[in-house]
Amino acid sequence: MKRYANIKMLRAVSLLLAASFLATGCATIEGPKPGDDTSFAPVKPVVPASRQQYNGAIYQAGTGMSLFTDNKARQVGDVLTVILTERTNASKSANTSTEKQSELELLNPTVFGGPVTYNGQPILNTSINSSNSFDGKGSSSQSNQLTGYISVTVADVQANGNLVVQGEKWMQLNQGREYVRLRGIVRLKDVEPNNTVDSTKVANAEIFYGGTGALNDANAQGWLGRFFNSKVWPF
């Protein structure tokens, strides 16, 4: 009776684990959404401290316009356009070849002027030959390219004048969405007069490109395939 109860409990636990595994595997993995990551959210301009107003003056103190500076992003909340010109090409190849040969020969020694034999056959005459060789080859190559434009906002101005920029861009295409996210540090002198900067000049750049929707899901591997290709699968 006790053995039957243990078997019944084992079956219940097995069914519970299987149901949990299937429920976890069949659950839809939601992709990113606009504004779900504050690291790429737009930043509002900093409200300047109230200054004394001089009624009747032609120009009032403020940050709206300057007669002596160009129209470049330089303050928190300003907009900067980044030109995406990312291109990477990498290749690697390896070729290894080793070979080793060994040969050993031991002649039959003589004892008291005669060879050591047994039934007329020498028993200490030995020779050993061995050889070992290995050939290995490997190669890999990868190429990526990303071009376009993305406008970001200045999130912070560092003590040396560098601009910390961040932003994202979403596009609705047919049955899915594509997005580009960028975050990095820009030197003010690298910003062109038309308020643009090349992405290759963005320091500590974090650039993400991806998509959501039916087309993206169709190109993704199923949960069961991911399980068999994961590190936990022992075979």
Describe the structure.
- The chain is an alpha+beta fold and about 240 residues long.
- The chain has a domain of about 110 residues.
- It is built from three helices and ten strands.
- It has a six-stranded mixed sheet with strand order 9-1-6-7-8-10. Strands 2-3 form a two-stranded antiparallel sheet.
- The longest helix is centred in the first third of the chain and has 25 residues.
- It starts with a helix and ends in a 7-residue tail after the last helix.
Question: Could you name the key traits of this structure?
Answer:
3 helices, 235 residues, elongated, alpha+beta, 6-stranded mixed sheet
N- to C-terminal separation? 38 Å
Overall mean pLDDT stands at 76
How helix-rich are the residues, as a percent range? 10-25%
Order of helices and strands: HEEEEEEEEEEHH
Total helices: the number is 3
Global geometry: elongated
**Over the alpha carbons, how many angstroms does the gyration radius reach?**
36 Å
Low-confidence stretches: 23-28
> How are the strands ordered across the major sheet?
9-1-6-7-8-10
Largest sheet: 6 strands, mixed
By secondary-structure content and strand pairing, the structural class works out as alpha+beta
Estimate what percentage of residues fall within beta strands.
35-45%
Number of strands: 10
